[in-house]
Amino acid sequence: MDNSMLTIALAKGRLGDKAVKILEKSGYSCDVLKTDSRQLILTDESQKLRFILSKPVDVPTYVSYGTADIGVVGKDTVLEAGLDLYEVLDLNYGQCRLAVCGPVTEQERWQHITNKRIATKYPNVTRQFFSETRQESVEIIKLNGSIELAPLVGLADLIVDIVESGRTLKENNLTVFETIAEISARMVVNRVSMKMKADRITPMISAIRTVLKESE
Ligand code: PRP
After folding, report:
1. How far is the CA of 167 from the centre of ligand 1 (A)?
2. pTM for the model
3. Pocket residues for ligand 1 (CB within 6 Å)?
């Protein structure tokens, strides 16, 4: 592996697209990404930058193993991964929250449900939240999407999910009971890279921080 090359893991899709815009405003060309190609590794030799394109949920893994020096990913994914990453910047986009939600009709009662069954894409965060804040062990049902369906069909009492506008909850007679964490896109760095490639990474963080301040 070329040590002077800086590798950035980006999520395919909206999350990654916004990261590209921020990088460009910060003075880093991302032209190599602007092709129709389906290549998953794109290298810009002149800037000594390499981009790897992964599923959002896998970005923390690439960074924690050091196969990427830097990654951009949602705080929800960082929390669920539970890996030892250095979170250096809040990129101030993709804002939403991770919350315990359930049927509006259960609003007064939900805390008293015994042996709660909770459907979620975030089993680790859910288990930890209930055990640390409530000393409560819960039954977790892992789903991969449309989590709001679970309480409607009796699969679960509650859900732990992302709430953005709140529209999905509202249109399914569900509501937020408790917020677990405020979420936004974060820049994470491998701990070894942060030391070994500080001469590349520190100026990048500073440039991005300046761009973020200007757009506040
Ligand atoms: C997310 C999340 C909620 C919805 C919240 O789902 O899981 O279902 O968005 O948005 P809202 O508060 O603005 O209605 P996503 O669209 O990522 O799809 P998924 O259900 O497959 O996870």
Report:
1. 9
2. 0.95
3. 145-148, 161-168
